[in-house]
């Protein structure tokens, strides 16, 4: 079952644990920013909490709701709850709730065993790969001193899109990704 994120201390603490355990630092926003972004009124960024049959928090889906599609930024199930179908049920419920095409990113097929397992999971759940290579910057990077750099944000409409040279100058690491669409 999917329920809206309500940012209670217990819910935030548990989701922060799943978030940091499931994604490497370069794929995460600082947790306080992650939750604050979801609490911003009118923002297209949202978090849904995945609950098991007993009502316990079992994971989450963070996504961007646009007019023509929903983009899943993070999808994670607590390792203790995996393998029982809760992730597949959550994706089905999300698709029905959204009513729009659903897009998400995955690593390059064949890049590692876990990537191949994730891709197989999404394919079993109706997603298919868009045969298009995209390169994206990490959500967070480290500065020369080791402190977390600012979040990477999409370019603003009133500013030109940063080119690779600009990205490289800012010491951002590029990742090859593949899109899956439902």
In brief:
With 182 residues, this protein is an alpha+beta fold. The protein has helices at 9-22, 31-38, 86-98, 113-124, 164-169, and strands at residues 2-4, 45-51, 57-65, 70-77, 102-107, 128-137, 174-181.
Q: Could you describe the 3D structure shown?
A:
This protein has about 180 residues and is an alpha+beta fold. It has helices spanning about 10-20, 30-40, 85-100, 115-125, 165-170, and strands at about 1-5, 45-50, 55-65, 70-75, 100-105, 130-135, 175-180. It has a 7-stranded mixed sheet, sandwiched between helices. The longest helix has 14 residues, at about 10-20. The radius of gyration is 17 Å and the shape is globular. It starts with a strand and ends with a strand.
Structure class: alpha+beta
What oligomeric state best describes the polypeptide chains here?
single chain
Tell me how many strands there are: 7
Mean pLDDT metric: 76
The major beta sheet can be summarized as:
7 strands, mixed
The portion of residues assigned to helices is 25-40%
Question: What proportion of the residues form beta strands (DSSP E)?
Answer: 25-35%
List the helices and strands in order: EHHEEEHEHEHE
The unreliable regions are: 140-177
Number of helices: 5
Cα gyration radius (Å): 17 Å
Morphology call: globular
Cα(first) to Cα(last) distance is: 19 Å
Q: Tell me the strand order in the biggest sheet.
A: 1-2-3-4-5-7-6
Task: Give the helix/strand layout.
Elements: E1 2-4, H1 9-22, H2 31-38, E2 45-51, E3 57-65, E4 70-77, H3 86-98, E5 102-107, H4 113-124, E6 128-137, H5 164-169, E7 174-181
Parallel strand pairs: 4-5
Antiparallel strand pairs: 1-2, 2-3, 3-4, 5-7, 6-7
């Amino acid at each position: 079952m999917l329920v809206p994120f309500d940012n209670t201390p217990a819910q935030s603490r548990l989701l922060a644990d799943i978030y940091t355990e499931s994604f490497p630092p370069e794929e995460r926003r600082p947790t306080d920013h992650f939750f604050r972004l979801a609490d911003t009124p009118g923002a297209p960024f949202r978090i849904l909490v995945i609950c098991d049959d007993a009502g316990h928090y079992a994971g989450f889906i963070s996504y961007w709701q646009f007019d023509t599609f929903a983009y899943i930024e993070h999808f994670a199930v607590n390792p203790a709850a995996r393998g029982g179908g809760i992730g597949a049920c959550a994706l089905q419920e999300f698709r029905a709730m959204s009513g729009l095409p659903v897009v998400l990113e995955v690593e390059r097929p064949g890049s590692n065993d876990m990537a191949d397992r994730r891709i197989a999971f999404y394919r079993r759940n109706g997603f298919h790969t868009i045969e298009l290579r995209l390169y994206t910057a990490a959500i967070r990077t480290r500065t020369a001193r080791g402190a977390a750099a600012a979040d990477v944000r999409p370019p603003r409409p009133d500013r030109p899109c940063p080119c690779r040279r600009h990205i490289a100058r800012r010491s951002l690491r590029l990742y090859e990704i593949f899109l899956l669409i439902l």
